Amino acid sequence: MTITLTIDGQEITAEQGKTLLDVARENGKDVPTICFHEATTANGLCRMCVVEVEGMRVLQPACIVEAANNMKVQTRSEKVIRARKTILEMLASTMDLSEAAEVQTMMSEYGVDINRFPDAERREVQVKDDNPMYVRDYSKCLLCWRCVQVCADDAQYTYAINFEGRGYETQIGTFFDKAIPETTCVLCGQCVGVCPTGALKPKREFLLEQGMSPQEISVLNTGRKRRRDR
Amino acid sequence: MIKPDRIVTTTCPYCGVGCTLQLHVQDDFIYKVTSPFDSPVNHGNLCVKGRFGYDFVYHPKRVTTPLARRYLLEGKPKPAGREQVFAISMDGNPISNSQISSLWDWIPTDWDTALNLIADNLVRIYQRDGSDAMAVYCCAKATNEDNYLLQKMYRALFRTNNVDHCTRLCHAGSVVALQQAIGSSAMSNTASQVMLNDVFIVTGSNTSENHPIIALQMKEAVRQNGAKMIVIDPRRIELVDFAEMWLPLKPGTNVPVFSAMAHVIVKENLINHEFIANRTEGFTDFIESLEKFTPEYAEEISGVPAEDIRKAARLYANAKNGAIYWGMGISQLSHGTASALALIHLAFLTGHIGRDGTGLNPLRGQNNVQGASDMGAMPFHYPGYMRVDNEDNAQKWEKTWNIEPNGLSRKLGLTTTEILSHAHEGGVRALYIMGENPMMSEPNLNVTREHMKELEFIVSQDIFINESGAFADVFLPATPFAEKEGTFSNTDRRVQRVRVAQPPRGQARPDWEIICDLALRIESQLGRETVKWDYSGPEEVLREMASVNQDYAGITYDRIDKVGLIYPVPDLNHPGTPTLFTESFPRGRGKFIPLDYVPVMEEPDDEYPFILTTGRVLEHWHGGTMTRNSALNEAYPEARVDIHPADAEMHGIRNGDPVKVQSRRGEVVLRATVTEKTSVGVVFIPFHFAEAAANLLTNDVLDPQALIPEFKACAVQVFPAREDDLANPEVEVHRGRY
């Protein structure tokens, strides 16, 4: 069945059952997303994709709200822009976005003031380097939940990582903060593959960034005695 | 943040799933692997090997110069007692602490010298002893093009069919059974069609560890689609967590369990009358043979409760779309062919074949074991499964290769295991090994070792000096997947591109180039008219093969540039064939073949009370040439033997204790993992670890039809051992994964 709705004043016909994000993008409307990923279940966590829908009290996350008949949608109203800008400013004030290329592009596009929240407490945690395959730098984590989802029912069904803590203290972690090799983790790196910010990174890429040469990296695994104590 | 100089799309060099990889390269160094989320095979998902296991390419032990033994380079007679040597004498001085004659030292040399030494020796042996003295192991890890050329070299130049590869050690039982019953031996459907199954059987396959990405799709089918999975396996593998039923059978009792399922399907009239009438033959004789296979009889032999056998049979038979996926647990037995036939019967009885979402699906173990078989790297077949003892076939290839009439041998060649057991005066004298590692993968390695020593001349073409290459006379440094062009054919029959991500390290050369260079030298020494070795590149090689092998006729590099094609692809416009046998089977009607139960050759007794079964683990791959020279070895650094808690307690063994496992043929010392993953009376050892090689223990009896060895069951005893008896007592990593 098809439905008809208006997006930014343009009348659009779409298949029923699609999200506002799908319909908007199919019709060339730019709706920015951060936590959304084609391979994971959308949860409307980051709220970057919010749009204004006439008759609805608050802004609606386009990635999970289904397009409905006669909806009137604004993707770039003043309210929408202000919300997105604030989201980016809050992110920028609490975490390290230096490797989140897409978020950085959005920040310049939305004219973000990175000093808007000068009193915000930055999340700064030690890099976790506890397995031979990848490192976890949660200072760069914006809690998009993609890694948790691919570890669970979106791909691997392994359930090695999940949210821990509440509110501001929320982080991604293993049960009882165990080292990765001791969890159910199978080191598939599905999580690394969907991380948007560089919080999860292959070990070799990390070492290269730390200034090790390919030559030094390639002798790392040739014997446990030669392994660097990190 | 690192910016890649280039991102190269290629195909994973590990298991048969054939995942798409994107290699991120900076300064000719691969620092990261990703996978596109729209890849048809793996949808962006990878396993630990595919995503992180490529670093063997840079391992310092990789050999990148041609090597020859000192005796050859100094023109001295071959010293007595062939010895394994792993180290290289870089300065020409004898290797210190060498226990053996320094004439066996490995000395770096140049390509001309190495190739001429090989040509001289192979031609000398061929001219002295004839075709039967020559043999070659092709390679399930190398490309289609590499394999095609190597079998061409041996068939066209040395006129022998002594050409085989490790398919003999993995799915030979399945291949022979499928050939007998259907007339074609690949998977009938694609792995991703598991999403269309409502009931499927997984048997003899630890899919989560051996085909991880197919296991993801199986789990998804269960959790998202509500499909019912029946696991039939002696081990409590990860998939059991997702299964509707688990039938824990005793190793080697496949035939009674599957036949009892068939018995139930027939007795309860759950058969597909129309399919049996229109598509099969031999049904009447077959149901007679089923009489004895009552579920109670099967329970007595296998330990699986009769009621569970009934329930599983009903589930599968009543499915709308039922499918069967199987692995080595079916084929690696002295009755591997019968095991696979028993499964094939289930599909014939129910008609669960020839439609999307059904099928008989042997999961192939290696990245290109399907392709190497397609390329004729087998002793009975030219490329395209054309029998070598068929006159028409031989003439076709004589014409293609520009060979005089009756030039090619019509005699069936020796299989992998036979090649080594024929290594003696008057038998096989020279062996060419491309990328394989028989000194890890053959059964009963103590005997294999003696056979290797018997050989007069051995060539190893590889990237490392592995346990087999260490016996060679000349070593040729080849390039791994990241340094060559070509194609792999995955377990789905999908032909996909392999691409150069970086130039060859050192003096290494792609396999296909090495073979052509060597073949030209041999050809000129033999004084024969050329059969063509001056290819412009791998694509021309593939096109030559495809000119005769109709399955590949429509495949060009252009057509598979972005997405691989699933053969048969009979012409240049054909879209490929994901589902086989929709109208008929290649042999016409599917054939029911009555079976008897034959026990494994070596059953447990008082002296050797445990059944040893062998297999693989997630982090490693076969003989370990690649994975043991990778960070993967950090994640799983040592061999472990799985033993059930009840057995462990009886023998006073705790988790992590060193134990000695002994069979009538050998012994190994390794740590025990006390786990309910294995059943009472059954121990499991992965075969990747040279320092505790499972195949020192295994039994070298063969299936009489497929000639596949019985890796999956032999009798062993387990004793407590001391820490000092372990090869690497300091290495122990605690892992929490399944």
Task: Describe it.
The complex is a heterodimer of chains A (230) and B (738). Chain A is an alpha+beta fold and 230 residues long. Chain A has two domains: 1-122, Roll (Ubiquitin-like (UB roll)), CATH 3.10.20.740; 134-226, 2-Layer Sandwich (Alpha-Beta Plaits), CATH 3.30.70. In chain A, 24% of the residues lie in helices and 15% in strands. Chain A is built from seven helices and nine strands. Chain A is globular and about 65 Å long. With 738 residues, chain B is of the alpha/beta class. Chain B folds into four domains: 6-58, Single Sheet (N-terminal domain of TfIIb); 114-169 and 368-484 and 494-566, 3-Layer(aba) Sandwich (Rossmann fold), CATH 3.40.50.740; 172-362, Dimethylsulfoxide Reductase, domain 2, CATH 3.40.228; 610-725, Beta Barrel (Barwin-like endoglucanases). Helices cover 29% and strands 17% of the residues of chain B. In chain B, the strands form eight sheets. A seven-stranded mixed sheet of chain B has the order 5-4-18-17-16-6-7. In chain B, strand 2 and strand 3 (29-34) form a beta hairpin. Chain B is globular, with a radius of gyration of 25 Å. Chain B starts with 5 loop residues before the first strand and ends in an 18-residue tail after the last strand. The mean pLDDT of chain B is 96. The chains are: A alpha+beta (230), B alpha/beta (738).
